[in-house]
Specification:
The structure holds two protein chains of two kinds. Chain A has 13 helices and no strands. By secondary structure, chain A is mainly alpha-helical. Chain A folds into two domains: about 170 residues, no CATH class; about 110 residues, no CATH class. Chain A is globular, with a radius of gyration of 20 Å. The relative contact order of chain A is 0.13. Chain B is an alpha+beta fold. Chain B folds into three domains: about 50 residues; about 120 residues; about 240 residues, Alpha-Beta Complex (Sufe protein. Chain: A), CATH 3.90.1010. In chain B, about 35% of the residues lie in helices and about 20% in strands. Chain B has a five-stranded antiparallel beta sheet with strand order 1-2-3-4-5, with helices on both faces. In chain B, a hairpin with a 5-residue loop joins strand 2 and strand 3. Classes of the chains: A mainly alpha, B alpha+beta. At the A-B interface, helix 1, helix 2, helix 7 and helix 8 of A face helix 1 of B.
Chain lengths: ~325, ~450
């Protein structure tokens, strides 16, 4: 028997099991929650709690109906994570109906149909958010800002508000971009909060950095080219504003860093990140900002197992672990 | 599953992360809000400088706005020292034909005079369009005027139609009339009227008690000692007096045969005493029979009946009213026909003339211009049956309508009167409506007490 315990999968017993990973992700999202609730108030908090509760309820019902896992002491924390991710990617003035649509699609179609937690091919939160962006485009435009934004208003949870006048994002100061003090989704605005979350995940070893880093680097390198081709002009300020305000960093950290749906091997992860970055830049001029961010993520989710397969074949003579950390 | 140690560690880390996040978010907010505020102020300046050039603006969120869905935004402008400078109201009102007029109204902070008016861009199909030249003319009429604003009819000035608005032949002065007998509550009604430039400027309707120890009726009603249906009597008296000031002619109050009127808001009591005494005051004014002469006339009646004047009889109260009911001697003020049937009542002026042996003056002696068709046989009595029940006595349909409010504001509350821009009534009216909406909102927002 080999003494190298890194080859023991799937029988290994690591400290970083599924509940630990999911709780770590939940904790890493605390800064984004704080930012969203601070800027958008009660309705943001309600949307977050509603999405999490709805996702848990939907998953539990599906599991009971299909009889896949009845009873036991296992609580599927992935439902909470995915519900939270959906909520953080919603505009603050989203109605509960729109949020529920996203949650149900994510839970039933993209998660339970594929076998439940850990078996889904695509990221449910990403799919749910993309679904309402495509099916209910008017329901995802509720970005309040300035005088139109009140922390105590709740009507937008029931009645879809008309989108108010938004400032030109290119006029935002660096401090605003860093702090998230500009109209955006509930949890994707604050660059610092996302970075803190990402740093926490990295320190805890529950995020693979291959895809996020390669995604960001690809976009950083190719953005000038894409912009020049699109508008014949380029400014470094525009690059910074895009990175900090588009939600790309949130996508990189919390969607491309996902262990279930992204490739597990280094080469495959890097490749997936590069492909995702290129697709995002290519589709940016033609699609809405959220679709151009999320559709490429779903594309590389579909490619993940193929990429992993080829990566494994290429490196089969070397020692590789599918686990994050088995030391 | 996770160990307890792991869970404890994660919970501790979550709490620390939460505290760090709060610090980051709040700190970031305060660092970045200066720029955000600057941008917001630039936005406000670009919108509001056309109506009011303040150093800064602040949006106000008030519960009072819930009652005014037409108001899209309410802002306070501040000067460079941070002192309030004025209000800017962003609102959309409906025109007479249901179209939307979106505009900004700027008002002075202290006296709520209109400082600026500007139309908002409105690409809506249902938008009410006012050209820039028309808007400039409307601005000329309105800017500087205190809200609320109403229209003054041009014919009220020296043109041929002046008799439609004011009662002709009135002499300036203070005129007075009181009932010669008390009512069931032992009150004697009186009306005092001040006329300037042929226009009724002040009217007071009250009643004193024949029991000198009792309060006047208005005071008693305010204290709850005198009750009538609807509002308290003092308020109803105030309302009817204001209605007369507005319409200038008691006939236009459209008193019905039961003594009530439907066209004066807040008045449900019997206004017949007021109507009759106001008519008597008008007749006195036409005859130049002012309050002093009226009091002399009353004294003369008392002298005739009792050989003593009011002073000697101690019928004068502190306010100078003759507190005496002539109900014991009805023949002094009643006229009878040959069959000894009551045909009417004489006024003090007529009684005095009768006692002096002069020709009894007709109370309608200058009323030719009113072109009343029915020639009342009782020349000596007040003609209160001349008009149709509940309608005023004007000739045309327009005369039958009395406008006692504008935009749900009573005329008595109006602070300014303007003339509509010629051939642009709809436009002027809609802008006035916007200004009056601002007034109604401010009244609620500032909790103004209208006196």
């Amino acid at each position: 028997m080999s003494t190298d315990n890194r080859q023991l999968a799937p029988f290994i017993h690591t400290e970083k099991n599924a509940p630990y990973i999911y709780i770590t992700i939940l904790v890493s999202l605390v800064p984004c929650i704080c930012c969203g609730v601070f800027y958008y108030g009660l309705r943001a908090l309600i949307l977050i709690l509603f999405c999490m509760a709805a996702f848990v309820l939907s998953d539990t019902l599906c599991v009971r109906i299909t009889g896949r896992r009845s009873g036991g002491d296992y609580f599927d924390l992935s439902s909470l994570v995915e519900g939270l991710l959906i909520a953080l990617m919603l505009p603050p003035d989203t109605t509960l109906v729109t949020a529920l649509t996203a949650v149900l699609f994510a839970s039933i179609v993209t998660k339970q149909v594929f076998g439940g937690a850990g078996s889904n091919i695509i990221n449910p939160a990403c799919a749910g958010r993309l679904f309402i962006e495509l099916v209910m485009p008017n329901g995802t435009q509720g970005l309040s800002y300035g005088e139109d934004n009140s922390r105590l208003q709740l009507m937008s949870l029931i009645v879809q508000k008309k989108p108010g006048a938004l400032p030109d994002l290119t006029n935002l100061s660096f401090a605003e971009l860093l702090s998230g003090n500009y109209p955006s989704m509930i949890g994707t605005a604050c660059f610092v909060c996302i970075l803190v979350g990402g740093l926490f995940l990295t320190l805890k070893g529950t995020m693979r950095l291959y895809s996020p880093v390669s995604y960001i680097l690809t976009m950083f390198v190719l953005y000038p080219v894409a912009t020049i081709l699109e508008t014949r002009t380029f400014s470094f300020d525009g690059l910074i504003v895009y990175f900090m305000s588009s939600g790309a960093v949130f996508v990189a950290v919390f969607l491309l860093g996902d262990m279930t749906t992204m490739p597990s091997r280094f080469a495959a992860g890097v490749f997936a990140g590069i492909v995702c970055g290129i697709l995002t830049l290519v589709t940016k001029p033609f699609l809405s900002p959220m679709v151009s961010l999320l559709a490429p993520v779903m594309a590389v989710n579909f490619l993940s197992f193929v990429l992993d397969f080829f990566s494994k074949t290429l490196t089969r003579r070397k020692i590789r672990s599918r686990e994050v950390d088995v030391s | 599953m996770m160990t307890h140690t792991q869970l404890k560690t994660l919970i501790t880390e979550a709490v620390l992360l939460f505290i760090l996040s709060i610090a980051l978010v709040i700190g970031g907010y305060f660092i970045s809000s200066e720029n955000a505020n600057k941008r917001l102020q630039n936005l406000y300046h670009s919108r509001f400088d056309v109506v009011m050039d303040s150093a800064s603006y602040e949006k106000v969120n008030s519960k009072a706005l819930n009652s005014y869905p037409e108001i899209k935004g309410f802002y306070i402008g501040y000067d460079a020292d941070g002192a309030p400078d004025g209000y800017v109201v962003d609102l959309t009102v409906k025109s007479l034909y249901g179209q939307d007029l979106s505009m900004l109204v700027a008002l002075d902070y202290e006296n709520t005079r209109i400082r600026g008016l500007a139309l908002n861009d409105n690409d809506d199909e249902n938008a009410f369009v006012i050209s820039n030249s028309d808007m400039d003319m409307i601005k000329e009429k309105l800017i500087g005027k205190q809200i609320p604003v109403a229209f003054v009819k041009e014919e009220k000035t020296d043109n041929d139609d002046s008799d439609k608005i004011t009662v002709p032949g009135l002499n300036d002065g203070v005129y007075y009339a009181q009932r010669l007998y008390d009512d069931r509550s032992r009150y004697i009604d009186y009306v005092e009227m001040e006329i300037k430039n042929g226009v009724i400027k002040k009217v007071k309707w009250d009643a004193f008690s024949t029991d000198k120890t009792n309060q006047d009726r208005s005071e008693a009603s305010l204290r709850g000692a005198y009750l009538v249906s609807g509002l308290d009597w003092a308020t109803q008296s105030y309302n009817i007096c204001h209605a007369l000031l507005e319409c200038q002619d008691p006939d236009r109050l459209a008193m019905k045969s039961d003594g009530t009127t439907d066209i004066v808001k807040g008045v449900t009591c019997d206004i017949r005493p007021f109507y009759e005494l106001a008519m008597e005051c008008i007749a006195n004014s036409r005859a130049g029979y002012d309050k002093d002469k009226y009091m002399i006339g009353l004294d003369m009646i008392l002298l005739h009946l009792y050989q003593k004047d009011s002073k000697d009889l101690e019928y004068l109260n502190d306010d100078g009213h003759v507190v005496f009911s002539f109900e014991e001697t009805p023949e002094i003020y009643t006229t009878y026909n040959d069959d000894n049937v009551v045909t009417g009542y004489l006024t003090v002026m007529q009684i005095e003339a009768k006692l002096r042996g002069n020709t009894i003056p007709d109370s309608n002696n200058n009323d030719d211009s009113k072109d009343k068709d029915d020639n009342n046989q009782n020349n000596g009595s007040i003609d209160y049956d001349a008009s149709e029940d509940g309608l005023n006595s004007g000739n045309s349909y327009d005369d039958q309508i009395i406008t006692n409010s504008l935009d749900d504001l009573p005329m008595s509350e109006m602070a300014s009167f303007i003339e509509a821009v010629p051939e642009r009534y709809d436009q002027t009216r809609t802008v006035v409506k916007a200004c009056n909406t601002c007034y109604k909102f401010l009244k609620e927002y500032l909790n103004w007490k209208v006196t």
